[in-house]
Amino acid sequence: MEKNLVLIVLLAPFIGFLGNVFFGKKAGKGFAGALGTVAVAISFALSVYFFLQVNQTGKPIAVTLFDWITVSNFKLDFGIVLDQLSLLWLLFVTGIGSLIHLYSISYMHEDENMHKFFSYLNLFVFFMITLVVGSNILIMFIGWEGVGLCSYLLIGFWYKNQDYNDAAKKAFIMNRIGDLGFLIGIFILGSMFSTLDYAQLKAAITAGNVDTTKLTVAALCLFIGAMGKSAQLPLYTWLPDAMAGPTPVSALIHAATMVTAGIFMITRLNFIFDLTPLVQNIIAIVGAVTALVAASIGLFQNDIKKVLAYSTVSQLGLMFLALGLGAYNVAVFHVITHAFFKACLFLGSGSVIHAMYHEQDMRRMGGLRKIMPITFATMMIATLAISGIPPFSGFFSKDEILLTAFHANIPLWIIASLASIMTAFYMFRLMYLTFYRDFRGTEEQKHHLHESPSLMTLPLIVLAILSLVGGVISLPFGGSWLNHYLAPLFNGSHAEHHLGTTEYILMAVAVAGGLIGIGMAYAKFLKGGAVPKEDHEMTGLAKTIYHKYYVDEGYMALIVKPINGLARFFRDTLEPALSQLVFSLGSLANGLGNLGARVQNGSIGLYLFAFVIGFSVLFIYLFLA
Amino acid sequence: MSTVLLIFYILSAFTLATAFLTIYSKNPIHSAIYLVLCMVSIMGHYLLFNAQFLALVQLIVYAGAIMVLFLFTIMLMNLNKEDEVHKPRMTRYAAVIIFILLCGVLTYVFVDTKPIMGEYDVTGQDFQSIKVLGKVLLNEYMVPFEFVSILLLTAMLGVVLLSKKEKSTR
Amino acid sequence: MENILNHIGIENYLFLSVILFCIGVFGVLYRRNAIIVFMSIEIMLNAVNLLFVAFSTYHQDAEGQVFVFFSMAVAAAEVAVGLAILVAIFRNIGSIDIANLKNLKG
């Protein structure tokens, strides 16, 4: 019974995918949307059921489906584990997933390929669930590749636009670099322990006698995988480009779920990272730097979705900072709250874009507050949450990260604080530019403006409420539910911070920082009424940052150009040389053949001679030799 | 030296000589006639073995049918002139060398197999009279025998088809 | 009934057959006239037939003679078809010199 239910959690979205693939087009848009949404909702309902069960008993549900790989002493089962961590992920993947499916019904209803969209989305959810619930790293890898594929398909969903296709390819290739690292990490672990099962790995590692050097290399490789999937420096550039996909996709895949897979992986394998402090330091530094760099780029972006994308990268950086400092539960907490408010922000921006006839440039917006009150209100809540203003959820999670950083390393704390001040600034810049003052778009757009239909606002409202109250799962005043819930997963409890004077001061500083950011944005964009300059008017630092520090161009010059040059060298110099060699071999054979053909001149006399001589030789060989 | 051996030697010498002359004559008609003589001498060998049936068949098929065919063909082509150009000298020498080589090799091979010299079995049974052969052919070898008839029929049809003048005049 | 081989000896027939066969081979190689080549082939066939009959007597068994009978039938068919082909060739190229038959050239 339980096994079947577990399977339904996994397979419901897959069935939705199949249904939409085979019948979606014929059955119509309503059916496609309903099927996709219901499939994910079923998963969600069952996830809730299992979550309640595990929360009560504290015992993970493990189901072994079949023996998968058995090669000499390497053995792997195909199994599903529903423990505290995977259930948490399941909950928000399927929960936010169903909300976004619901939203997409309305958002995509004008698209002729709606069934395709929903089948991709369902496939994505299926792979994401696979990633989360697998009982070993290899199953996680299947899901990992699967979500990468779906991400590619969905970014390039409007495949008639070549830019979007390029963005999809970029995302796929960048991820591939990370995936290679992940794969190598898996191989190293497999060769070290002859198993990839989480439980067995954990037992083997905690038993001691582990080659730390090898383990460090493995952990580093795994982190490279996480870097690719979760868009950390230096592999982050695909994520902003991934905004080419439809907005619900950005919300689901590139904000709430898929990009947190890296964090999931590191949290899942925390017992490995605990033993490799070097890699932990690298993670922390990479995370902090990513947070700062991405936030600074976000300051000057004018595309509403690009701002959110950089903010996602920045927040992911903060999560990695927490992971690097060993505060896995804090990272998980931030993943959850971030999923709420970032999904809400993306869906809100989608609502705006929908109203603006697919205009994404904030310089063309403004004054939407009165026309779209629900969108405005929900986005405002989410913005306050991401800016770290109490009592919104983001405050608690971000504050815990900052606290952890402060206790571990002051410079990291400074960087993270700077990043969150910038976050507050650019988020409010976005709000002011979009919703306040006068409308700056065309008359036609102005005429078209409208509040989105209820199918779109309902998910917004739910997500806004969640961003408002999401913090309660881990309140800092002792007795955090989340820490308690996740405790079985981690080695050695990370002592909860006792709220002393320092902590309160830090909180105040963080809030003050957020307020400063908001204040600056207020002064510049609301009071000052500044509108960002047009692209060509930008100068100096602003221009550099607007062009993302020319990172893409740097990659172009450092990697793409040399490779192209090398390719050209191979094509123009090496290949002709090689083919010369090969062709000369061929003409040698040809010449030999011609030489032999001369014997075959059609003269029967000669043939007869050859025949008789051959016959004699054969006789001599057979009977006389 | 028994009479039989003497007969054998004379017959063999005649066989080899006519065979050689078959090849060596410049005029194809002479060749054909020497070949007839050769066949007849081989028939003589068969008679020596008391293989009456084969001797008769040899006479009818080779000396009769096949030779008539050869002569007919030669007449048809009007080849009785001695106009054949000899092969190049090299080729002729090579042919002689190969003749000697092959003779040596085959003789050596057969001598090497060391057949029983001296006494030979005599079962006393009749194994080669026309009556016995007929029974063997039509009992044990009936199917191949029928196939031979089909083969001959096919060959006949083929010959007719081949020698028929084509209608289209090219 | 006595065995003729007691007087002659199987080895004599072996030598006779071999020499006859080699004369046939020699003819095939030596002459250019296709009809003579054909005759040489007949000589070779007869050499083999002769050996068959000799061994038939040697083993006191009819099988060898049956085989000779079949080989004669095949030879007859072969000669008929072969000569017909020669006639056709002669009709087409006006000669049966095998040096002129170069159509086997690849």
From TrEMBL, chain A:
Family matches, as InterPro entries: NADHpl_OxRdtase_5_subgr, ND/Mrp_TM, NU5C-like, Proton_antipo_N
Residue ranges the record marks as coiled coil: none
Signal sequence coordinates: none
Transmembrane segments: 6-23, 30-52, 86-105, 117-135, 141-159, 180-196, 216-239, 251-273, 279-300, 307-325, 331-353, 374-392, 412-435, 455-477, 504-523, 604-624
GO cellular component, one term: endomembrane system
Alphabetically ordered keywords of this record: Membrane, Transmembrane, Transmembrane helix
Gene Ontology BP term (one): electron transport coupled proton transport
Subcellular location: Endomembrane system; Membrane
Presence of keyword ATP-binding: no
Domain of life from the UniProt record: Bacteria
Annotated ranges, domain NADH:quinone oxidoreductase/Mrp antiporter transmembrane: 136-423
Record-annotated NADH-Ubiquinone oxidoreductase (complex I) chain 5 N-terminal domain positions: 68-118
Membrane topology: Multi-pass membrane protein
Molecular functions (GO terms): NADH dehydrogenase (ubiquinone) activity; NADH dehydrogenase activity
NCBIfam families, A to Z: NDH_I_L, PRK06590.1
Protein name: NADH dehydrogenase subunit L
Origin species: Flavobacterium fontis
From TrEMBL, chain B:
GO molecular function, one term: quinone binding
Catalytic activity annotation: a quinone + NADH + 5 H(+)(in) = a quinol + NAD(+) + 4 H(+)(out)
Protein's UniProt keywords contain Membrane: yes
Protein's UniProt keywords contain Chaperone: no
Gene3D superfamilies on file: NADH-ubiquinone/plastoquinone oxidoreductase chain 6, subunit NuoJ
Recorded GO CC terms: plasma membrane
Subcellular location per the Swiss-Prot or TrEMBL entry: Cell membrane
Signal sequence bounds: none
Pfam family, one: Oxidored_q3
Membrane topology note: Multi-pass membrane protein
Transmembrane segments: 6-24, 31-49, 55-79, 91-111, 141-162
InterPro entries reported for this sequence: NADH_UbQ/plastoQ_OxRdtase_su6 (IPR001457), Nuo/plastoQ_OxRdtase_6_NuoJ (IPR042106)
Function description: NDH-1 shuttles electrons from NADH, via FMN and iron-sulfur (Fe-S) centers, to quinones in the respiratory chain. Couples the redox reaction to proton translocation (for every two electrons transferred, four hydrogen ions are translocated across the cytoplasmic membrane), and thus conserves the redox energy in a proton gradient.
Similarity remark: Belongs to the complex I subunit 6 family.
Record protein name field: NADH-quinone oxidoreductase subunit J
Automatic annotation (TrEMBL), chain C:
GO biological process, one term: ATP synthesis coupled electron transport
Membrane topology per record: Multi-pass membrane protein
Segments traversing the membrane: 12-30, 35-55, 67-90
Keywords: Cell membrane, Membrane, NAD, Quinone, Translocase, Transmembrane, Transmembrane helix, Transport
Cell compartments where the protein resides: Cell membrane; Membrane
EC number(s) recorded for this UniProt protein: 7.1.1.-
Keyword Repeat set for record: no
Record field: catalytic activity: a quinone + NADH + 5 H(+)(in) = a quinol + NAD(+) + 4 H(+)(out)
GO cellular component, one term: plasma membrane
Main location: membrane
A Pfam family hit: Oxidored_q2
GO MF entry, a single one: quinone binding
Alphabetical list of InterPro entries matching this protein: NADH_UbQ_OxRdtase_chain4L/K, NUOK/Mnh_C1-like
Keyword Translocase: yes
Purpose of the protein: NDH-1 shuttles electrons from NADH, via FMN and iron-sulfur (Fe-S) centers, to quinones in the respiratory chain. The immediate electron acceptor for the enzyme in this species is believed to be a menaquinone. Couples the redox reaction to proton translocation (for every two electrons transferred, four hydrogen ions are translocated across the cytoplasmic membrane), and thus conserves the redox energy in a proton gradient.
Family to which the UniProt record says this protein belongs: Belongs to the complex I subunit 4L family.
HAMAP family for this protein: NDH1_NuoK
Subunit architecture: NDH-1 is composed of 14 different subunits. Subunits NuoA, H, J, K, L, M, N constitute the membrane sector of the complex.
Protein's name in the database: NADH-quinone oxidoreductase subunit K
Gene name, Swiss-Prot/TrEMBL: nuoK
